[in-house]
Design brief:
11 helices; 5-stranded antiparallel beta sheet; alpha/beta
């Protein structure tokens, strides 16, 4: 990850569709300074008290962005759905020398143009969602979180019914499945398990292990209601 990202605290979010609103409000909830901009006053009004500042403005105008102090932000995130508007806003952010620019691409061609402009990070939400959906449907109850290497991941899974009321030592998960439970999400708490920790219905397990072991674990979760619950949690709540 770029070293610039580690020092970022001030974010400019341009475009307040579902993706932009999710990015802006999440960054703000994590203690960052967030200026959110959109031409639609109704969308801007929805973010009142949910970001540092929300402004109705035309982000394709260098003068307007300069007057809003955009040049002082660590990072600009372009979340606009209109390709022409996205490219114009991105170029303005480059002209204002904003240190790090992230942009959402609508398609492959849009992504190539953004890259040629000099965008630091290009996001393809639909491609990501497609892969996530396919993964979840093929592995019920399992959600891949972080790909550390090509074959080693961190993922979360719902606790299989056959594991209820059994402790970690008894299940011997590492020997049987070649993975390790790193954390347990139980209600609003995060638990660091030891050998005597008993698993319960509703526990979400954060697991680290090889990718090729996922099929063994997914066979334990045969209830597709688990997959549906995970899908709803990811795609509805995060608004990709």
């Amino acid at each position: 990850m770029d070293k610039k990202i580690e020092k970022m605290k001030d974010y400019l979010v341009i475009g307040l569709g579902r993706f932009g609103k999710s990015v802006a409000t999440t960054l703000y909830s994590m203690g960052n300074e967030v200026l959110a901009i959109d031409k639609d006053a109704d969308e801007v009004a929805k973010l009142h008290d949910k970001v540092s500042t929300a402004v109705t403005a035309d982000a394709s105008s260098k003068e307007i962005l300069y007057s809003l102090g955009a040049q002082n932000f660590d990072c600009a995130i372009i979340c606009m759905s209109d390709i022409e508007a996205s490219l114009l806003a991105t170029q303005v952010c480059k002209d204002l020398n904003i240190p790090y620019i992230i942009a959402k691409a609508q398609n492959e061609q849009h992504g190539k143009i953004l890259s040629s402009i000099g965008v630091d990070l290009i996001i393809h939400p639909e491609e990501y969602v497609g892969k996530k959906l396919a993964s979840l449907l093929s592995k019920p109850g399992i959600n891949e979180l972080v790909e550390l290497t090509d074959d080693f991941n961190i993922f979360e899974m719902t606790t299989p019914e056959s594991w209820y009321d059994k402790n970690v030592e008894e299940l011997n998960i590492r020997r049987k499945y070649g993975v390790s439970i790193v954390y347990i999400k139980r209600s609003n708490k995060i638990l660091s398990p030891d050998a005597d920790t008993k698993l319960a219905e509703g526990d979400i397990l954060i697991i680290a292990g090889q990718k090729n072991k996922l099929s063994l674990l997914s066979n334990l979760n045969t209830d597709y209601n688990d997959a549906i619950a995970t899908l709803n949690s990811i795609f509805d709540n995060n608004n990709y």
